[in-house]
Amino acid sequence: MQYNVTVIGSGPGGYVAAIRCAQLGFKTAIIEKYNTLGGTCLNVGCIPSKALLDSSEHFYNAGHTFKEHGIDISEPKVNFTQMINRKAGVVKSNVDGIAFLMKKNKIDVYTGVGSFVDKNTIKITAGDGKETTITTDNVIIATGSKPTALPFAPFDKKRIISSTEALELKEVPKHLIIVGGGVIGMELGSVYARIGSKVSVVEFLDSLIPTMDGTMGKELLKSTKKLGMDFYLGHKVTAVENKGTEVVLKAEPKAGGAAIELKGDYCLVSVGRRPYTDGLGLDKVGIETVKGQIQVNDHLQTKVPNIYAIGDVVRGAMLAHKAEEEGTMVAEELAGQKPHINYLLIPGVVYTWPEVASVGYTEEQLKTDGKAYKVGSFPYKALGRARASMDLDGLVKILADKNTDEILGVHIIGARAADMIAAGVVAMEFRASAEDVSRMSTAHPTYMEAVREACLAATANRPIHI
Fold this sequence. Notes:
Elements: E1 2-8, H1 12-23, E2 28-32, H2 39-44, H3 46-64, H4 80-104, E3 108-111, E4 113-118, E5 121-125, E6 131-141, E7 145-147, E8 160-161, H5 163-166, E9 175-179, H6 183-194, E10 198-203, H7 214-225, E11 230-233, E12 235-242, E13 247-253, E14 260-264, E15 266-269, E16 273-275, E17 289-290, E18 293-294, E19 307-309, H8 320-334, E20 348-350, E21 355-360, H9 363-369, E22 373-379, H10 384-389, E23 395-401, E24 407-414, H11 417-429, H12 434-438, H13 449-460
Parallel strand pairs: 1-2, 1-6, 2-3, 6-19, 8-15, 9-10, 9-15, 10-11
Antiparallel strand pairs: 4-5, 5-6, 7-16, 12-13, 13-14, 17-18, 20-21, 21-24, 22-23, 23-24
């Protein structure tokens, strides 16, 4: 078969690239190693984790806030099997939806490992060893990433686990030890803390979610401590060992002092992810990787002109929506259009409760760059809507240029932050000032009032409700 475009990998970047290519009139194929489409995000990442996060939040509220709301029920119990089954159902419906979209857009789907024979020829090796060869004018590599293991503690998928296994446990852990206080560690840690696990987080750096604004990490630490989670910040893990029925972790403070030893029934290692290019046969086309990443230019084009790469295998944040934007960009580039991506305005979200969401520069980055800025913030506890819903934890933080008032960063921790950050992206995309946003009418009572109030604070230090 001959194609205009062949996409290797069917995660958010890959399937979106394929759909956009088909919309633009290209004869398109997509190759997926596994039997289901959707990649990490739909199968073992974004979607299943959010399903469990929502289930655990409902359980937690039933036991902790229903009575205050005037809802009397007997003590709730966790049906963990049903939680996992519901999660699987959510995954299946999403995966089936991607398969439907492939048919709708007349995209040919191949199941197997895709590897280069040459720059225009792809070999697909199915699970039974059967090989199929196709030719193509252009290739988009979208093979995603895999969890990074500790060199002294490889995943055994029994006691020392990655996020993949953490989404498929058969029991609620009595004590879940987590290595890494980033997005994945905090999301899954909050899931299990809410349904009864003792959770201990060991983080090498001195703050949680260290890639985000420092204020967000401090606030998230305060809120998750209320779930009973324990934190060992600034600790270097020196050993993780599966003892059969338990796992033992040893760590030492970076600043010196007594080492710690934690014993639990599972240890989730969430120290990041690595680009996944195994089996692609990049050497056949002369493409090399640097620190695992495929090198691309501003058009996401590799050194081989007809081969592009997007998503987790190239530089930048490993985010599903970043990969989607890149997939769309490459498709439109191939069609002769002039798309662009402002990587500064790719938002980041942590789906704990309260949620954390950020876009633009952090305060730490502005300080490092020597940029003159001003800060406006507003606490959720001063919102009528937050008091009505009992979601008092959190704040909105606005960073604006000290001289021009242009918004440079929006950082939110609080209820519905993941949805609210879109307003920050729009404002920054159109280079709005803090005053611009402060003069917009915001419905009352809503959480979005906190964004407007934070902009008032940044503009003239005149928030209304504090």
